[in-house]
Structures are given as C-alpha cells and as structure tokens.
Amino acid sequence: MDQYDVPYMERTRNFYRAQGYSKDYQWAHYDDVPFTVLQKPLSKARIAVITTAMPDTEPGRAQRQVYASPSDPIPSVMYTDELSWHKTMTHTEDVASFLPLQQLRQCTQLNLIGDLTQRFYSIPTEYSQRNTIEKDAPEILALCQQDEVDVAILVPL
C-alpha cells in the first residue's frame, strides 16, 4: 500500500469505534449479484446515471433523499459538503469527475450508447442498509422504470 491508498473500510471501522460503537458496521453484500444480462446492444441502450451527490441546495437545507434532476443543462455544481468523501485527497469542484453526463453525451454522438436519460438520479448515502434496500432502492428502480432505463451507471462520490 502506498501513501495514496485509502483503507476506507478500516478507516471507517476505526472512526466508529472511536465514537464508542462496540459492534462493527456490517457491510452490505450479496451471495447472488442482482444484475441481469443486457438484452440489446449498448449502442441501442438508454443509460441513466445514479450519483451519491445531491443537487445544489441552500447551505444547511440539504436533505438525504432520492432526487431526479434534469440532465440538461448539466449542473455546474452539486451539493457534497455533508457527504463522506476524502476531502484532503480530492475535491468536488469538477462536477464532470463524478457526474459524467457530458462524457455520456459524447458517447451518444459516437453511437457507443443509444441514449442518455433526460434525468439523472441522486441517492445520498445514509449508512442504513435497511433504508437503502427498503426505501431508496425501490424509489430509484421506479424512476428507472419510468424513464425506460436499460443500463444504470452508479457513480459514488
């Protein structure tokens, strides 16, 4: 491991232990991965982006909830202040680094993908597997179904 590796899981366990939690967080895992084979060529598929960043809001007004935001125009800023990311190793000033809408538009022009959805989705992490599985995931699935999404690209912040 070099100086730039971020031992995320170990760092997270140590953080919660330092706060007095006696039981380590149980990371989500699946024995059977809930994915499916794409039924059409990627060049004909509709692509959606799902990010953990939130739409820009007034300071102190951000709410951890599922958002569906227009893909056009591409936002110049996203709200990331209250989210967990390695703030000493990176920044979130370049929205394209974690919200690849412009890059995907270029892929549509090159016929690498069929289409980009008119909305992208935000699902800020809440660190609750139960809320993610029982509330947020069904909401995202419903939005993807409404937009007839074939492929979802998950982009964690």
Descriptive notes:
The protein has helices at 8-18, 101-109, 129-146; strands spanning 46-51, 54-55, 67-70, 78-79, 115-116, 119-122, 151-155. With 157 residues, it is of the alpha/beta class. The chain has one domain. It is 24% helix and 16% strand. Strands 1, 3, 5, 6 and 7 form a 5-stranded mixed sheet that branches. The protein has a two-stranded antiparallel ribbon with strand order 2-4. The model has no long low-confidence stretch (mean pLDDT 85).
Task: Please outline the major beta sheet.
Answer: 5 strands, mixed
Tally of separate domains: 1
Tally of contiguous helical segments: 3
Number of DSSP-assigned strands: 7
What share of the residues does DSSP label as strand, in percent?
15-25%
Q: Indicate the low-confidence ranges by residue numbers.
A: none
**From the helix content, strand content and strand pairing, which structural class follows?**
alpha/beta
Percent of residues in helices comes to 10-25%
* Helix/strand order, N-terminal first: HEEEEHEEHE
Mean pLDDT: 85
Distance between the termini: 22 Å
Nearest-angstrom radius of gyration?
A: 17 Å
- Morphology: globular
